[in-house]
Specification:
Strand content: 5-15%
Strand order of the largest sheet: 3-4-6-5
Shape: globular
Length: about 425
């Protein structure tokens, strides 16, 4: 939202005052919820997120109308659309693998409730501030999730087998739609770890592996650039609830169970939220490197061949759509980067390899993901021309906001302003 006025510095103690006035965030247990095994959980997720949008509406109206009335640019992030789309998408996508689950009707109702509340938020703000130009946008759309299971679990088990470590097949029972079943009220992480945790060495249990993984993960994450670290911290801040994860750093990802053995592996899978990631244990780069740099290219050849040979056991389709290699001197690869990035095909819940056998299928985690390519940007208010501007780049949103607020960028930025204004708002 943009309107004329003078810039306002950050109001002191704003967070404290907001918490005191409006209470705690009502949907925290569902920020990264995975409720699809339970209709009741889907309903509760929708109720909680809808309540959160309503609180956000009251906060925005109070903050801009009473607390800071002389604002010039207001940015209001409505995160509930993101949470709802990740947890409830199977309710609104008839082609989703989980579309026939008993929870799908409840998920559909919950999703509509959240988006209706967001629509009311926009309407109430437009009504409260009729002199403001409103820009409502999403940088991209959402879609079915195709990455959680292979990138957070399967690729770790595959790399362990390739390194000569036995791992269980971890196949979950399938329903009539070939969907791996997961009990309601049990987190995905706990379900998968119970299935894949080896039992050959009773002295090394889940708690021990997690403890060591946490220690090393903390040491590794301290080396991350601040923006990356902050993003990971936001991603890990999940809390206990039905269908939610309780991570400690990144140790909640099942592939992290192999982390204590990374120094003994020629290559290993590293944590990722989307594409699969493999890092080579390269001499001269890793603290306990095993692979000679002279063998780097041939090792990548071998790994790519293994990945491309993997099939989805339920469908027989190829599991991998593309493999991207690091280009340049591998010894200069950043400490947080991977040597191979893996793009998965749709619906991969298991891996089947002619030499390394079958892993899974495992149950779905989030039903929605960042797979929709096309976002939407709507602009309305004084001086704004109505019409359809067609397809434009997401990079155009920032220059448009800057033009509307009358600011010049301090350095070159990508994109160009959208042609939406014929006259400047009156000061």
């Amino acid at each position: 939202m943009i309107r004329a006025g003078r810039p306002l510095p950050d109001p002191p103690h704003c967070i404290t005052k907001l918490s005191s006035r409006f209470g705690a965030y009502p949907a925290r247990p569902w920020v990264y919820g995975t409720p699809w095994p339970s209709p009741e959980d889907c309903t509760q997720m929708g109720l909680s997120l809808t309540a959160a949008v309503e609180v956000r509406t009251r906060i925005a109206t109070w903050l801009l109308g009473d607390r800071c009335p002389d604002w010039q640019l207001a940015m209001i992030g409505v995160s509930e659309a993101h949470s709802a789309s990740e947890g409830l998408f199977h309710g609104v996508d008839p082609g989703h693998p989980l579309a026939h689950q008993p929870s799908a009707p409840a998920a559909a109702d919950a999703m509509r409730s959240v988006y209706t509340a967001i629509d009311r938020l926009v309407g109430e703000l437009v009504e409260a501030f009729p002199d403001a130009i409103v820009v409502a946008f999403t940088m991209h759309a959402m879609g079915p999730n195709h990455t959680d299971v292979p990138s957070m679990a399967l690729i770790g088990e595959l790399m362990a087998r390739w390194n000569g470590m036995p791992t269980p097949d971890a196949a979950f029972p399938l329903d009539a739609d070939l969907v791996p079943r997961m009990d309601p009220g049990v987190s995905w992480t706990d379900s998968v770890l119970k299935a894949v945790q080896p039992t050959a060495d009773p002295a090394v249990g889940t708690a021990s592996v997690r403890h060591r993984a946490v220690a090393v993960a903390r040491k590794a994450t301290r080396q991350l650039p601040a923006p990356v670290l902050n993003g990971l911290r936001r991603g890990r801040d999940l809390v206990t609830s039905s269908g939610s994860e309780t991570p400690s750093d990144l140790s909640w990802m099942p592939l992290m169970r192999h982390q204590p053995m990374w120094p003994a592996m020629k290559a290993f899978a590293v944590p990722s939220y989307y594409d699969g990631r493999i890092r080579v244990n390269l001499k001269g780069r890793e603290s306990e490197g095993l692979v000679d740099p002279a063998d780097y290219v041939s090792l990548l050849d071998e790994l790519e061949s293994i990945l491309r040979a993997c099939r989805e056991p339920r469908t027989g389709a190829a599991a991998v759509s593309a493999v991207h290699r690091h280009h340049g001197d591998p010894l200069l690869l950043d400490a947080t980067d991977a040597d191979l990035l893996v793009d998965w095909t749709d619906g991969v819940l298991g891996l089947e390899h002619p030499e390394f056998g079958t892993i899974g299928p495992l149950p779905q985690r989030r039903s929605g993901g960042h797979t929709g390519p096309i976002g939407r940007c709507l602009v309305a208010g004084p001086g704004v021309v109505g019409g359809d501007l067609g397809m434009n780049s997401s990079f155009d949103v920032l220059p448009t906001l800057m033009q509307l607020v009358g600011a010049e960028p301090a350095w070159p930025i990508a994109g160009k302003p959208l042609d939406v204004v014929t006259s400047s708002p009156s000061p």
